[in-house]
Automatic annotation (TrEMBL):
InterPro entries hit by this protein: 6-PGluconate_DH-like_C_sf, DUF2520, NAD(P)-bd_dom_sf, OxRdtase/DH_put_Rossmann_dom, TM1727-like_C_sf
Gene3D superfamilies to which the protein is assigned, alphabetical: NAD(P)-binding Rossmann-like Domain (3.40.50.720), ProC-like, C-terminal domain (1.10.1040.20)
Residues covered by region (Disordered): 1-29
Domain Putative oxidoreductase/dehydrogenase Rossmann-like: 31-151
Name of the molecule in the record: Putative short-subunit dehydrogenase-like oxidoreductase (DUF2520 family)
Compositional bias ranges of the Pro residues kind: 1-10
Chain ranges of the DUF2520 domain: 170-293
Comp. bias (Low complexity): 11-27
Length: 326
C-alpha cells in the first residue's frame, strides 16, 4: 500500500521570493527528490510525511512509539520503517521533520544532537507554531540547517487531512539561504508560505490558538448553555448561525458584529449575566471578557457610540461583580 495521493499543485506566483529581495549566497540546492525522516508520528507528523510522499519525496523512516502512532504510520506511511528518533534522524539524508509537542521540542533536538544523529548540511525542520529557529540551536551547532514550518490547520491524523492541506497557510521562519527550499516544501504540501519573523512566532501562534482553540471552547460553552435552556439538539441551532458569523467576520471584520453589545443594550446583557450566574457561574467571566472586548471593538469601529455605551460599560465593568457573586 502506498501513501494516499493527490494532485500536486502548481507553485504559487512568487512563492520562492520572500519579502526583502532575492536570496543570495545559498548553498548547493538539495536534490529534487528528498530523503526524509519524520520524528513524531502524531496527527501532524504522519499527515505531513504522507503529503511529502505524495509529492514524490522518499519518506524512509518515522518514529512513533504508541499504538496510535504505529497505526497512523501503517495507514499513511506504510513504506517508512518505524524506529527510534535517532535512527530516523540518521536515515534522513536531506530533511528531518520534527513534529512533537511544543514543550518537548527543545529536549528532542538537544537529544538528537548529543546522540550524534544529526549531520552537517541536513535540513532540520520543526512544525511548532510557538517556536522559531532558536530551539534548533543544538542542530545548527553540529552543522545542520534550521527551518520552522507550521501548518495553520487542525489535524485528525487521517487521510482526510491530505485534502484539507490544499491552499492552507504555513507560518515559515527560515534563514535567507533556506527560504527557496522552504517555499518549495510548502508548495509540495499544497500550501502557501507566510513569512514570520523569529521574534513574532509567539504572537503568530497566540493568534491561531486564540482564534481556533478558543473557538472550540466558545462553541461548546454555547451548546452547553442551550442544553441548560432545554434545547435538545444545540448543534442544529448553532450551526447555521455560527457559520454565518464566521463567514461575515472573515469578510467584514468588525462590521460583522451584531447583538446586544453592538447595540448597547445594557438591560439585555445584565439579564444574561444574572441568569448565567444562577445557572452556570463558570461562564460569567468568559462572557464578561468577550463582551467587554466586543464593546471596545464596536466603539473603535464606530458601530457603538460612546454615549450609548455608558450603561453597558457600567454593567460590564462594575455591576457585574455583584452579579458574579450572587
Amino acid at each position: 500500500m502506498s501513501a494516499p495521493s493527490r494532485p500536486r499543485p502548481a507553485a504559487p506566483s512568487g512563492a520562492a521570493a520572500p519579502p526583502g529581495g532575492a536570496v543570495t549566497g545559498a548553498p548547493t540546492s538539495p536534490p529534487r527528490v528528498l530523503t526524509v525522516g519524520v520524528v513524531g508520528a502524531g496527527r501532524v507528523g504522519a499527515v505531513l510525511g504522507a503529503a511529502l510522499a505524495a509529492a514524490g519525496h522518499r519518506v524512509v523512516a518515522a518514529s512513533g512509539g504508541s499504538g496510535a502512532s504505529a497505526a497512523r504510520l501503517a495507514l499513511l506511511l506504510p513504506e517508512a520503517r518505524n524506529g527510534p528518533a535517532a535512527e530516523v534522524a540518521r536515515a534522513a539524508a536531506d530533511l528531518l521533520l520534527i513534529a512533537v509537542p511544543d514543550d518537548a521540542l527543545a529536549g528532542v533536538v538537544a537529544g538528537l544532537a548529543e546522540a550524534g544523529a544529526l549531520r552537517p548540511g541536513q535540513v532540520v525542520a520543526h512544525t511548532s507554531g510557538a517556536h522559531g529557529l532558536g530551539v534548533l540551536a543544538p542542530a545548527v551547532a553540529v552543522g545542520a540547517r534550521p527551518l520552522a514550518l507550521h501548518p495553520a490547520m487542525t489535524f485528525t491524523g487521517t487521510p482526510d487531512d491530505l485534502d484539507r492541506l490544499a491552499g492552507i497557510s504555513y507560518g515559515v521562519t527560515a534563514p535567507a539561504e533556506l527560504r527557496p527550499l522552504a517555499a518549495r516544501l510548502v508548495v509540495d504540501f499544497g500550501g502557501v508560505p507566510e513569512w514570520v519573523g523569529e521574534t513574532d512566532r509567539p504572537l503568530y501562534h497566540a493568534a491561531l490558538a486564540h482564534g481556533a482553540n478558543h473557538l472550540v471552547t466558545l462553541v461548546n460553552e454555547a451548546a452547553d448553555r442551550l442544553r441548560d435552556a432545554g434545547v435538545t439538539q444545540p448543534e442544529k441551532v448553532l450551526a447555521p448561525l455560527l457559520r454565518a458569523a464566521l463567514e461575515n467576520a472573515l469578510r467584514l471584520g468588525d462590521d460583522a458584529l451584531t447583538g446586544p453589545v453592538s447595540r448597547g443594550d445594557a438591560g439585555t446583557v445584565r439579564r444574561h449575566l444574572e441568569r448565567l450566574a444562577a445557572t452556570a457561574p463558570e461562564s460569567v467571566p468568559p462572557y464578561l471578557a468577550l463582551a467587554r472586548r466586543a464593546a471596545d471593538r464596536a466603539i473603535a469601529a464606530g458601530r457603538l457610540r460612546p454615549a450609548d455605551a455608558v450603561a453597558l460599560l457600567d454593567v460590564l465593568g462594575g455591576t457585574y461583580r455583584e452579579v458574579s457573586r450572587a
